Amino acid sequence: MPGAIPIALFALAGFTTGAGMRMLDPLLPLIAADLGVTVAEATALVAGFVLPYGLVQLIAGPLGDRMGKVRIACLAVLLFGLGLLASAWVTGLAGLVALRAFCGCVAGAVIPLLMAHVADSVPYAERQVTISRFLTGMVMAQLLAGPVSGVLAEYAGWRVPFLVLGLLALGVGGLLAWRLGPALWRAEGGGGGGRGMAAYLDLLRKPSGRWLMAVAFLDGALLFGGAFPFTGSFLIEVFGRNAAEAGLIVAGFGIGAFGYTRFARPLLRRFGERGLLTLGGGGLAVLLALLAVAPGWGTVALVQVALGLCFYMFHGVLQTLSTEALPEARGTAVGAFALALFLGQSAGSLGFGLGLTLIGYRPSFLVAALGVLALALWCRRGARGA
After folding, report:
1. Which CATH code is given to the segment(s) 194-386?
2. CATH code for the part of the protein at 1-186
3. Delimiting residues of CATH 1.20.1250.20 domain(s) in the chain
4. Which residue ranges traverse the bilayer (predicted)?
5. Distance set, CA 328 to CA 120, 123, 248, 324 (Å)
6. Whether pTM exceeds 0.90
7. In 220-251, which ranges are continuous DSSP H helix?
8. Residue 269's pLDDT is what?
């Protein structure tokens, strides 16, 4: 039965899809050279994955509620593995972009649906701690995917990381299918999930649902798409680090995030959800302000570790609240949260990029710090109603 599947196996599934998103970070120049295109043209591979990954939430949530969350996630992991293996044999950019879009589409169904299943299976009092264990897979993907794929590509070519991750995804998907047994081919059905896309309207009719979608959008705009992705270029352009050094410094974020997954239970017991929102959000604001005035790259390195911890203290509460936003259709609710986060990320990257053009890195980080502080205060007030 799905409820008996170890959380470690869900974390592995999250690792495979998270690694699939981050594996291209060091590979674009090698792919561009091999396929005879420029690096600028090869960046279509990034957008080709991320856009379908976000938009598929519209259908993945209702589909999981109707057909079975773990069942759909398992099939998605298997298809993801096949897409990665096929990518290793492509000889042109257009074909590789198409396969990246396919991989992004199926990968986008995995983490939200497995998280919704965890919420179905675990009482709310234990849910944030369990979700933090599940998120270990995504955190390790952030830490390892870029460096490991870079080393493999350096010694064996850019196609080998696709083969290795594809085989891993097929292995994880196969284990999930084995644990599901006959349930893999039998729809769960029933419940609020039968409302399909109409469940989104149910969510938006609730004041707490609208509040959660709004804070997810702002979370994505200020952090996921705003400050975080530009830290690497800040290190390169302001402090003169090379790309490899900047990548290692930014990876410190994953160390802090991993620390959260280990200490979520005592943190939650000590501070509670509203306390974590306050401490995490306030800490993020202070740390972004420190980035704005950082005198050297060493300060940025220390800030990155603390950012990882504070971000997951803050974001982890919001993620857990999303699992209770629409209990009768959790797949839809968690998918809606992920979609709002993605839309905010897209808007934030455009806004922060404009800020860099008009006022530069340091003032832009300061603006983000003020925005996160206001968001944290709003979240502390709104979390009680949610």
Report:
1. 1.20.1250.20
2. 1.20.1250.20
3. 1-186, 194-386
4. 42-60, 72-91, 97-119, 131-152, 158-178, 211-231, 243-263, 275-294, 300-321, 333-354, 360-379
5. 9, 15, 43, 9
6. no
7. 231-239, 243-250
8. 87
